[in-house]
Amino acid sequence: MAEPMGFFTDTSVCIGCKACEVACKEWNQLPARNGGKIQLSGQSYDNTVSLSGIQWRHVKFVEQFSPDRSTGRWLMMSDVCKHCVQAACLEVCPTGAIIRTEFDTVVIQQDVCNGCRACIAACPFGVIEINPETNTAMKCTLCYDRLQAGMVPACAQACPTQSIQFGPISELKQRAQERLQQLHEQGVTQARLYGHDESILGGLNAFYLLLDKPEVYGLPSNPQLPSRNVAPSAALSAAGAVALGLLGLVGLRKQRMDRLAAEARGEGEGSHAG
User: Once rounded to an integer, what is the mean pLDDT over residues 109-126?
Assistant: First the structure.
């Protein structure tokens, strides 16, 4: 197996140009949303809104302003599939359409996917969606075809500020630690890494340097695998079944007691009549 490969995204140098989005769409031949006729939400300068089955890269704009808009700040983050080491989507896929590649990335095979949406519900990051043109689940492949040809993923190649860095995971982790230390020495104490170690789903092969808490960027602080809920759910189901069984036994016993009482009353009335 080749060395695990992935992305390190340094949000501190993202300028929100969305060149990564354009490069991703162009290389993967993804259609424009609504035929390219996009209406602005009026709530944000972000005109691509979110990840989807036809939007495999999305640059989030976190716009924070005071009520009188006299002060504010912008945080930007190019979001993408995390290619989790412990991938929930791969765990629940009933057809084997989702595979782990030789680069330790997670890919959905379009010719095997039946569009059941199980992976969509399982992903704790809300990354996967149905492509309305193919009716199959789609997400970033980390440009699997380019990796096989020894090329850099399109988004990382297009990024003008090196906010998106591609390479061996071990090398990226070292770069991320050095950048974090540099920011802390400059007084940016809120800077932190997200997904760089095994604490989040065994590690994320697309991890981040953030300038605030993960929740500020819409990232869960403690994402869970569906399998972690299996044992508690099974215990609750078993307890429910036992309770229903006991209620049934109580009901049957009551019916039997009522019948015996009725029979006793009938015999008593018969003896008095005699």
Answer: 97
194-215 residue pLDDT tens: 999 999 999 999 999 999 999 9
Q: Using 50, 70 and 90 to split pLDDT, how confident is the model at 35?
A: confident
- Measured over the CA atoms of residue 129, residue 132, residue 138 and residue 144, the dihedral's sign is negative
**C-alpha–C-alpha distance, residues 262 and 72, integer Å:** 80
Distance from C-alpha of 44 to C-alpha of 5, rounded to nearest angstrom: 33
How far the first Cα of the chain sits from its last, in Å, is 95
The identity of residue 127, as a single letter, is V
Contact 9, 165 (CB under 8 A): yes
**Does 233 have pLDDT greater than 60?**
no
Say if residues 105 and 5 touch (Cβ distance below 8 Å).
yes
What is the chain's mean pLDDT, rounded?
90
Cβ-based neighbour number of residue 48 at 10 Å: 17
Query: Which long-range CB contacts under 8 A does 68-71 form with residues at least 24 apart?
Result: none
Burial tier of 39 (Cβ tally within 10 Å: 0-12, 13-18, 19+): exposed
In Å, what is the CA distance from 172 to each residue of 4, 7, 80, 168?
A: 11, 8, 17, 6
Q: What is the pLDDT of residue 234?
A: 47
